[in-house]
Amino acid sequence: MIIQFSPKRSHAPIALMAFAAMCLVGCMEKDNPNIADNGAKKDDSDTAPDTSGPLVVDTFYNPNNQGNSGDNLHLLDRPDVAICLRACETPTDCVDRGNDAIHQAGNYLCTQQVCVYKGCNSNAECEEFQPGMDYKCDAKSGGCVSSCLSASDCVSEWVTADADDNNYTCGADRVCTYKGCLNDTECQIAYGSRYLCMDPLNTGIPVCQLGCFAPADCVRDVNVASEDADNWECIDERCYYSGCKNDEECGPGMRCINLNDK
Description:
7% of the residues lie in helices and 19% in strands. The protein is mainly β. It has one domain (2-257).
């Protein structure tokens, strides 16, 4: 199930390099010719955010947790809907991204027979994963995040209206935290008039995404059963994922589960 999200910024938590379908905040920032030096779009052609690929909803996106990729879910990031997650018997079943430092068995839990990504365990893991970048392991998010002295340190060279210094905080622990877009205007300045500030998965961190008039407008891949129109709601022109319906929608080796259910 695929959703396009923004922002993807170089001073927010690093993305998983091995997840070729996407790039979370900052690992592969590109020169965007549609963005002016002041962060505004150069024209009104409704250019999409530079997301460097789609984000699968079976991971649940939190821009402050670099570990949300593949089919794993960070402990703190639990949308109150059923989502597709990889089935497992032990944490070892969750490891399929080579031998990089933040995707060992010790970075996962196998809970309720699905993979849950715990995140990094130490600054040393982040340094090994991305040498020389001064990333720290943030205990709150489980992500490798950029260090900072002020919010301005968190802003990418290719700043857009939804990712300037008022969209970040630099906490007492001196790591960057992305707050999300602040309003629709930011999204429309950054990406075009069709974009709205919304929180499709109830993450607490709103992002810029295309608006909708009907659930069908929220569908990004009609060939994925867990992402067709009956898995979405369109409320006030904003898309909200209502969840997968069953394991069959998720496909082989996956389970449809709401981790909030007891």
